[in-house]
């Protein structure tokens, strides 16, 4: 059985997740927003199989290079944002200088399109492309855990006032992908508290 730990990182309290296999030997990291010491200590002694990015806004990628270099793990991102890791203008860090320095690292190792299943930690991670908050936003479903990035929050949704955003696409993606999942699927968002698919389908004031 997989276990996970959440780390709220940086000035925007972006949720990063470390998922560990039942044997406690291997891990996957989702959205390492800063090179946080507690997150790195959690990874010590583990084989890090991958960094999975729900999208490449600066507050989700600030720790990517540190984790990738320290643990020698590949980075996965949607093809629509394949050059955002290397471009501080596209990932937004050049415009938010009051909270971050410009972020520009290496490009991704693997590109996602949505619909594929990744074999990691002995489990299948299903990739759901839900654009709207950003062109390449994805969710990762493994078992009854949905890592929703900034697409779906508890009783809220991601912002759609950035370049390349679309409220229409975001709402459609949530309905077509996330809301088709069982009620008891645990939603682990990019910011804020956990929720469930059932609660959001019932109580989310933006998408119902």
Automatic annotation (TrEMBL):
Signal peptide: none
InterPro entries: MBL_Glyoxalase_II, Metallo-B-lactamas, RibonucZ/Hydroxyglut_hydro
Cofactor requirement: Zn(2+)
Metallo-beta-lactamase domain location: 13-191
Function: Counteracts the endogenous Pycsar antiviral defense system. Phosphodiesterase that enables metal-dependent hydrolysis of host cyclic nucleotide Pycsar defense signals such as cCMP and cUMP.
Entry protein name: MBL fold metallo-hydrolase
Spans traversing the lipid bilayer: none
Keyword DNA repair: no
Statement: the UniProt record of this protein carries the keyword Acyltransferase: no
Alphabetically ordered keywords of this record: Hydrolase, Metal-binding, Zinc
Catalysed reactions, as listed in the record: 3',5'-cyclic CMP + H2O = CMP + H(+); 3',5'-cyclic UMP + H2O = UMP + H(+)
One Pfam family named in its UniProt record: Lactamase_B
């Amino acid at each position: 059985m997989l276990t996970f730990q959440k780390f709220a990182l940086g000035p925007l309290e972006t949720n990063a997740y470390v998922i560990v296999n039942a044997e406690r030997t291997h891990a996957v990291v989702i959205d390492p927003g800063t090179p946080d010491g507690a997150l790195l200590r959690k990874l010590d002694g583990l084989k890090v199989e991958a960094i999975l990015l729900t999208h490449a806004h600066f507050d989700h990628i600030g720790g990517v290079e540190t984790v990738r270099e320290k643990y020698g793990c590949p980075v996965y991102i949607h093809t629509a944002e394949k050059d955002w890791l290397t471009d501080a203008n596209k990932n937004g860090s050049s415009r938010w200088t009051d909270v971050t320095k410009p972020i520009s690292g290496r490009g991704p190792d693997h590109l996602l399109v949505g619909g594929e299943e990744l074999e990691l930690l002995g489990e299948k991670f299903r990739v759901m492309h839900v654009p709207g908050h950003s062109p390449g936003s994805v969710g990762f479903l493994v078992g009854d855990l949905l890592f929703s990035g900034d697409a779906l929050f508890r009783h809220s949704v991601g912002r759609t006032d950035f370049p390349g955003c679309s409220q229409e696409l975001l709402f459609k993606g949530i309905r077509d992908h996330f809301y088709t999942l069982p009620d008891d699927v645990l939603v682990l968002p990019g910011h804020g508290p956990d929720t469930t698919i059932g609660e959001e389908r019932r109580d989310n004031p933006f998408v119902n």
